[in-house]
Amino acid sequence: MAARRAAKLAGPLVAFAALLLAVELGVRALLPHYASRDFFLTLFGDPPDATPPEHEPLFEGDAGLFWRLRPGARTIWDFTMVETNAQGLRHAGPVGRKRPGSLRVVCLGDSVTFGYRVPLVFPDVPDAWDRGDAPYPGRLERILRERFPGRDVEVIALAVPGYSTHQGLLLLERWIGRLAPDVVVICFGFNDVTLKHAPDEVVMTRDRVDTALRAILSSSQALLHAWRWWTSRAAASGAGAEPPTPRPRVSPERYLDNVTAMVELARERGARVLVVGPVYRDREGVPAEARRMSLYRGLLAQGMGALGVPYLQIDELTENGWPANRDLFGERIHPSSAGHQVMAERIADALVRDGLVGGAGPGSDAGGGA
Fold first, then answer.
1. What angle do CA 123, 93, 355 make, to 5 degrees?
2. Minimal CB count within 10 Å: which of 93, 134, 314, 351?
3. C-alpha–C-alpha distance, residues 203 and 42, integer Å
4. Crossing angle, helix 221-237 and helix 2-30, to 10 degrees?
């Protein structure tokens, strides 16, 4: 009897599942592909990815982080030559278990740490770029190897353009167990102060149910097209509505809380930590933005000092260095190749000065999976 009732219930469920599958296959066959990264970008309040068709996209969608680097990419992105490994890191080759006795440094950050426009390349001359150029994590690795001859040193950039500390904390949570770093260098700032109509903690809520719903929606072309149709209708009906007042993606208090949580997480996993104050060129271009950068940097310095966390402020890469720092920046936000060299040198000096690197440290034999 029970088996007969179960069979009766299963029939409609199977038919419904078959209908959903048919709709999904039909949408995929008849409508243009809607990339999940574009769904998350528009949900975040940005336009869809404008990567030219002749270049493969650098980013893909992520239900928690909203966007991440696409594994195995080799592309020119915004005048930047970028290659990612199979794990979706801007790193030469796969990152495996930390080798016994080695020193592994993880540089956690946004487009500054990622190396926006480093190396610089122009699409009309795609082969004319400096293959020896590198963002500061790569330069830091070279410097540490020179300072500690014979030491096995590996520096890994765990950085994605556009990330705030809200996303950075989640990124570190995902990766710290696999990377098992001896040292974590943390540098965030500009994206946190960037103005949006809603803060990251609201748009990118970490609630498990919300994350699961975003994952389901972004995996279905039928649902994505339905969502786009519905939101376009809603936008048209509310065209005259007053938009919310823009505010920083991450509040000053939340910014400090997020960095503190990164520090605590790294220390719990046995890593030593250096926090680097956010870089910014001058006070003249966008004065209000510069004031927010200065405010966040000051809170960070004070907060890390209270916790006894090594903190580095590179004055020539802040507003205090203007106008002498002009050649150290590509524009007001991102260091030039010369600026990355300064960052690498100052960070290396700080790591040695504060006793964060040296001989085989207490975490040098820690394991870690890839």
1. 105
2. 93
3. 11
4. 70
**Region(s) of the chain under CATH 3.40.50.1110:** 74-198+244-353
Contacts of 89 (CB under 8 A, 6+ apart): 69, 95, 156, 157, 158
Per-residue model confidence as pLDDT tens digits over 61-103: 999 999 999 999 999 999 999 999 999 999 999 999 999 999 9
Type and span of the H or E element at 17: helix 2-30
In three-state form (DSSP H/G/I as H, E/B as E, the rest C), the secondary structure along 124-168 is CCCCCCCCCCCCHHHHHHHHHHHHCCCCCEEEEEEECCCCCHHHH
Q: What H or E segment, with its residue span, contains residue 185? A: strand 183-187
pTM of the entire structure? 0.91
User: Which class would CATH give 74-198+244-353?
Assistant: alpha beta
* CA–CA separation, 167 and 169 (whole Å): 5
Given 3-state DSSP classes, what are the helix, strand and coil percentages for the chain, each rounded to the nearest 5?
45, 15, 40
Residue 312, pLDDT score:
98
Question: What is the token pair recorded at 95?
Answer: 């990152």
Q: At 109, which helix (H) or strand (E)? A: strand 103-109
pLDDT digits (tens, 9 = 90+) for 20-44: 789 889 889 999 999 999 999 999 9
